[in-house]
Design a protein that fits this description.
Structural class: alpha/beta
Largest sheet: 6 strands, mixed
Order of helices and strands: EEEEEEEEHEHEHHEHEEHHH
Number of helices: 8
C-alpha cells in the first residue's frame, strides 16, 4: 500500500471527478432575454395553461422562481417547447410585475393569503336579489378587496324578477359604483350579457360571487364558445348554491375586446391581508381630509379629521358613512 508523508506531490494524487462534472457552481442565473411573453389562463395541480400569441401552451414553473407562484391573469415569460402540441411542456422563468392583485384569506384570522387573480382591471361582484338572498356584508368585503388590490368594482344584480333592486342599490349609492340589473329571463336569452358586455369592452374583468347567483350562467352567455357547467341549484335548507366552478379560468370575450376571469363561488371572503390605510385611496374626495388625522388613525375614532372635513362641506356625509362601513367590515361577520 502506498503511503504519503507530509510533503506529498499533489500530481501523484488521483482525484475522482464528481457525478455532476467539475464545472464550479454559480449563483448567476440566465436572463432568458429571448423568452416569449404569455398570459396564464388557468392553473391545475402545478400545470399552467398559458396563451402565447395565438397558441395555448402547457407549462410548469421553473425552480428558480422559488415559492413565488403564478396565478390566472399573470403575464409571464416562457422558454422551451412553445408549439402547443400535445404532450409538450414549456417552462415559466419569469413573472412580470403585476398591475393589480385580488387576494383573500379563508377568514379574518387566517394568516395565509390566497391570490385569486392578477392584472385584472375590474371586479364584477355578482349578487342575486333573491334565491339566494343578497349578502351585503359579502359585497362589502369584495369591495374592500377590490379597492385594496387596485381593481374598479362593478355590481351585477341578478334575478330582479324575484325582488326589486332599490334597497340594495340605495346602500351603495354613495359609492358611485356602476351596476347592471338583470332578470332570470335575460340571463337565459342573452339580454343580460349584452348589457354587461358594455362594461367589459377592452378590460380584464374578474367575476366573483357566491354559489347560485347565476355567475357562471352569465359567463357562459358572455363567452359561448367556452361554456362552463352552470350551477342552477340552490339548497332549500341553507339557501346556498353548489360550487361548480372549481378553478379560476380566463376566457376571451366574444363580440368585444377583453377578457373574463371566472372564479369559483365563494362562501367567505377573509380580509386578514388588507391594510385599512389603502382603502381610503378609493375615496379621492375624502383623502385630503385625512391630513389632519392623528398618526395611525382608523378614520373611525373621535379625533378623526374627516368629521370636520365633511362638516365644512368638502364631501358628502354619505361618503364618509360608506367609508367607515367598509373599514369596519372586518369587525363584523359576513352574515350580519
Amino acid at each position: 500500500m502506498r503511503r504519503y508523508g507530509k510533503h506529498t506531490d499533489e500530481d501523484d494524487i488521483r482525484s475522482r471527478p464528481g457525478r455532476r462534472g467539475t464545472r464550479p457552481r454559480t449563483h448567476i442565473r440566465p436572463k432568458h432575454e429571448d423568452a416569449a411573453e404569455g398570459m396564464v389562463l388557468t392553473v391545475d395541480r402545478g400545470r399552467l395553461t398559458c396563451l402565447v400569441e395565438d397558441r395555448v401552451v402547457m407549462a410548469m414553473k421553473a425552480r428558480e422562481l422559488g415559492r413565488k407562484a403564478a396565478v390566472v391573469g399573470d403575464r409571464v415569460a416562457l422558454v422551451g417547447d412553445l408549439s402547443g402540441k400535445k404532450d409538450t411542456l414549456a417552462r415559466i422563468v419569469r413573472i412580470e410585475e403585476r398591475t393589480s392583485l385580488l387576494r383573500r384569506t379563508a377568514d379574518d384570522d387566517d394568516p395565509y393569503e390566497r391570490v385569486v387573480v392578477a392584472n385584472a382591471d375590474q371586479l364584477a361582484i355578482v349578487t342575486a336579489l333573491a334565491d339566494p338572498e343578497p349578502r351585503p356584508r359579502l359585497i362589502d368585503r369584495c369591495l374592500v378587496a377590490a379597492f385594496d388590490g387596485g381593481l374598479e368594482p362593478l355590481l351585477v344584480l341578478t334575478k330582479s324578477d324575484l325582488a326589486p333592486p332599490d334597497k340594495l342599490l340605495e346602500l351603495y349609492g354613495a359609492l358611485d359604483i356602476p351596476y347592471v340589473v338583470t332578470s332570470r329571463e335575460e340571463l337565459e336569452t342573452g339580454g343580460a350579457a349584452d348589457r354587461v358586455r358594455e362594461y367589459l369592452d377592452g378590460r380584464v374583468t374578474a367575476f366573483v360571487g357566491h354559489s347560485g347567483v347565476g355567475k357562471t350562467t352569465l359567463v357562459n352567455a358572455l363567452v359561448p364558445r367556452e361554456r362552463r357547467r352552470s350551477t342552477g341549484h340552490v339548497n332549500a335548507v341553507t339557501g346556498r348554491g353548489r360550487h361548480t366552478t372549481t378553478s379560476a379560468l380566463a376566457l376571451p370575450l366574444s363580440e368585444v375586446d377583453g377578457w373574463v376571469i371566472d372564479t369559483p363561488g365563494v362562501r367567505s371572503f377573509g380580509l386578514a391581508h388588507v391594510d385599512p390605510s389603502r382603502v381610503i385611496h378609493a375615496f379621492p374626495d375624502l383623502g385630503p381630509g385625512t391630513e389632519g388625522c392623528p398618526r395611525a388613525c382608523s378614520h373611525d375614532e373621535p379625533d378623526c379629521a374627516l368629521d370636520d372635513w365633511v362638516t365644512q362641506g368638502h364631501a358628502d356625509p354619505a361618503r364618509l358613512y360608506s367609508l367607515r362601513r367598509l373599514l369596519a367590515v372586518r369587525e363584523r361577520t359576513e352574515g350580519d
